[in-house]
Amino acid sequence: MSDLIARLLEAVEFGKIDQKSPFPPQMRGMDGALELTAQALEASVSPVAILEEALIPAMANVGRKFSENKVFVPQMLMSAKAMGVSMAQLKPFFASGALRKKGTFIVGTVKGDLHDIGKNLVAMMVEGGGWSIVDLGVDVGSDKFIEALRNHPGAAVGLSALLTTTMVNMGDIVKGIREHAPATQILVGGAPLNAEFCRSIGADYYAPDPQTAVEYLNRIAS
Ligand code: B1M
Questions:
Q1: 50: Cα separation from own chain's centroid
Q2: Do the first three CATH levels of 3-96 and 104-221 match, i.e. the same topology?
């Protein structure tokens, strides 16, 4: 692992956003995710490596430490912010999709759930795969998905959930969408889900990661 990747992983894991950020105190004055991502890109480290070898493992470490009561919500939030400033710099590399769009993809994190990093990543990769994105944000119920479908008939829909307590809300959203537009392609994703859960709520496809989501959407578009 390159030194820059290792430092970026550490910056995101400890929630060091940029050099002037006072948090965490032990990293005061050091480069943060903002500077280290820019340096990695400048050094021709691939955006995929930045994502897969630094950002995603950093968040996995944060999640493990949260489970072990070694970090708490504020630290998770700082890590999410650090990841956000890094992802913003990667976006242009992933969002250079074909000029002619393959279709529209409506995406949101479901009702009750505020986790948006995975959803943003999926939106970014799908956009890069040549789709127009309608991002409804977080805490989205069936009414908003249906309204978006009214504005974008025939669009595919993606639902994200990170909590076992909110993934169950996907069932109602799928039901609502099916009543309004039965043929809508609905894909679901997020850490606590699996293919069996997807089938049980009547969604069309479970995508474990953004790339699988892109591949599925490209299959249904062709
Ligand atoms: Co929260 N959180 N969190 N959190 N958080 C988890 C999810 C948790 C696993 C941590 C833990 O206990 N180890 C745990 C859930 C337990 C459970 O239900 N099984 C948890 C908890 C408990 C909570 C709170 C309840 C904590 C509290 O308040 N006591 C609270 C809930 C708030 C709410 O949503 N109502 C909460 C809050 C937060 C923050 C706000 C502080 C922050 C989110 C900030 C933000 O998103 N802007 C946060 C964070 C950062 C995490 C962890 C550490 C990281 C999540 C993340 O961004 N991962 C997380 C632990 C973990 O994941 N290991 C945790 C990186 C991201 C790239 O991965 O989102 O999994 P992920 O997305 C992946 C795939 O899942 C997939 O592709 C992505 C890339 O591979 N994917 C899709 C996701 N959506 C998809 C959709 C698709 C296809 C693929 O198609 C449509």
A1: 15
A2: no
Domain ranges of the chain: 3-96, 104-221
Q: Is 142 helix (H, G, I), strand (E, B) or coil?
A: helix
Calculate how far, in angstroms, residue 202's C-alpha sits from the geometric centre of ligand 1: 23
Atom of ligand 1 nearest to the CA of 81: 47
pTM above 0.85, yes or no: yes
SS3 67: helix
CATH code of 3-96, in short, is 1.10.1240.10
104-221 has which CATH code?
Answer: 3.40.50.280
Element (H, E) at 156: strand 156-160
**Degrees, nearest 5: CA angle 201-206-208:** 140
pLDDT tens series, the chain, 222 aa = 689 999 999 999 999 999 999 999 999 999 999 999 999 999 999 999 999 899 989 988 998 999 899 999 999 889 989 999 999 999 898 876 545 688 999 999 999 999 999 999 899 889 878 899 999 999 999 999 999 999 999 999 999 999 999 999 999 999 999 999 999 999 999 999 999 999 999 999 999 999 899 999 999 987
CA 162 to centroid of ligand 1, rounded, Å: 5
